[in-house]
């Protein structure tokens, strides 16, 4: 318990969206009763496709969007729901690295000003020593000290993301939330940033939440992985379990859809192809949100919302939200879908 | 082929290229495409000519009384009235025998400050109110926007006319009335800027770092909104000169005998055969309006990161000035 | 490295047994920018045989997309300019055609799918109409026949309920469905060659898997697939071209490129991406230092020189040419070529 840095319980974030006319507003449950925790020095990966609520989860922890319900605890401090004073204090302990390093840096400020800002806002370094601290931060992320005098647009994408990471490090936070930190970067530069994040984490004992749609990046970075789908956490599992002990059909399908950069592996792969696209979060399916695309969906999946429950030994730390988790974990959904045991039912898609 | 995708017209392709963010994969080459479109030097030419004219007028306005050949108001030579341009009176003389050249030069002293002051007042007041409107939102926003709607629903010149007529014709009332008519435009522009900037990732990042709302606003929202305001202001300078001229033309603007371009054109309306009375002050107005418009257009291109393409976005006031006066700043890429 | 399946497939696509449907030779494209002339594509040459899947991989700005667009003469000029090169489709050089003949070939013999399906469609026309429009003009089809063709095409690319979908507008389809519809539109004219410009990049992985599965099923169609995603390329391509700052740096069969890359850039790129199938996660990824050179001021020697781990003096001054290294690959690298001669 005390080893957990961040505990999130039943987090829900709802957005109101207008549907044409001004008066009729629909509620989108961007994040729906998600619970997880991050230990000290641990990396939690959050993975899922667009609209699954992974970024919103990160924003909600950082207090950038208002949460509908749920508790967030940092260390032994419970965070209030408002977006006011608590988030000022929060930003000393939790920092964020954003997806697009071009737009997340103020283009009208020098790199030095950008890095000084958190120091000044929290007043943690006396004004005279700030320039020195900025230099240290730049060196920490592998940039020359002279960068402080230049503007973000004078740097390449990878370098800009380094600046973004330096800004997050400035207040010496305990947790850094990385929201798709490599999505906007080129392949060869991506590795630089991933390596940097890992090195910094190891050196400074940081906790990381690594949010990405890129399954391979998440599996490379994370100790534990939370898989999200349509606002729900469908499975949380240790990295070692991902490859052959995952217990949710979506986790297995997602993993099988990720292309492997090896033609021989690709040729002999067994693929689980899901039907259709992710449904609209405005009108999610009843019961299990994944059932409309699940190859082994049964009647019960449309009626009962599956609870997040522990599977296997408690110590393994794997939880899953699926009625048939045991079967899926044992047999794999490709085999299950083919056998008559859990054949795809021919229910109508009722949303 | 029209709409089929096998042959999208160049416009479609351009759209595709502009939509790309410069740092997403597979788009640096497309970024170059965008940059290339702005290489048109012709715009730059107009910009520098405009700048030159404005500087020239500014110098004239401040020094005219020191060197003009005749005193613009006190010198009258009724015997020589309505004389065509000659060696002594190069722009001719008016109906009281005053030297038109001297009056046009001296007119700059009033016409330019009126324009600058009006735009400054309208710009600052409008921007502040607009920024509040966009940043605070809710009822405040609704209220401010409705007030703007009311003012904007009148034709600008008619409203200004009514106000000056009520306050009495002098140059200060002209400034006041035109500012009153103009601020809602700045208000709306600033509001829309703030609304869109507020959702930028760098603002989210600033909040995430722990900046207070005031700091977020002053350091991260405002600097992004100002270039648009500045550009609108330069274009409006020309507009104000025209409105002032219009008011003087009708007779509610600057009172005689003070030399003011609009008033001079207005006074000449009954003397069409003495063409120099209309043409020279008219040319003065024309050159200033054109100059401000050229500079406005040029500024927009120089300050707009989209038009400058690629990775270059706006920068500090210093580098902004550098760009304005020295043309585009060269962007450097350095290896890590 | 080669297995039975590999050799048989290479045999199939060898020039002796199947004819070349597309020949691109010495394509050179420039962009005129405010900062000078950017050399976006520098002498790209490749051949595609019937039914072959050729992938062009590289990072942003490497000229892969520009190559496709220039080959179809879709690059707006100015600012871009195709300086030289020929693009022969079935023996006809697109570069010399007049506008009318060009339009006839585009869409009929060769067509293209883009990354962003939403902006590639006209928002105010139905999907069905846009799918059949090109063919309808060329074959003078009636309205009913055109609709039938559109429905047929949508069914072929796996769109459920195609009759309904054909009557809908682009924004009413989901992302994956739209991409399928765009493929249907590109295939409506029964082209021999299909260009694909990262058509799955904007899609979710599970949807991407569906689209890749569909594309793999087009056995007879020659495809030139541009991508930065090495995983996608591995599962799709027969042959791979690796591009770097406008140059082809390596070309070869997909297995050889992935299992014995000869160019240091290809090798580093492959080792820089994490893989999901081996959970060796604790290792450091190989990263390539620095970033690609400025296209406006390309270095005199090898464009990869600054970032290369195995460079020699010659690389700084002489630009390497594409030469055969080993049995199947061609590589533009002095070091790899020297090693090959030595062995």
Automatic annotation (TrEMBL), chain C:
Q: What InterPro entries does the entry give?
A: AAA+_ATPase, ABC_Ni/Peptide_Import, ABC_transporter-like_ATP-bd, ABC_transporter-like_CS, Oligopep_ABC_C, P-loop_NTPase
Membrane topology according to the record: Peripheral membrane protein
Asked whether the UniProt record includes Secreted among its keywords, one would answer: no
Does NADP show up as a keyword for this record?
no
Query: Which Gene3D superfamilies does this one have?
Result: P-loop containing nucleotide triphosphate hydrolases
Q: Where is the ABC transporter domain?
A: 22-270
Q: Which UniProt keywords apply?
A: ATP-binding, Cell membrane, Membrane, Nucleotide-binding, Transport
Report the locations given in the UniProt record.
Cell membrane
Instruction: Please tell me where this protein is predominantly located.
Output: membrane
Q: Which family does it belong to?
A: Belongs to the ABC transporter superfamily.
| Annotated protein name in UniProt | ABC transporter domain-containing protein
Q: Give the organism the record lists.
A: Microterricola pindariensis
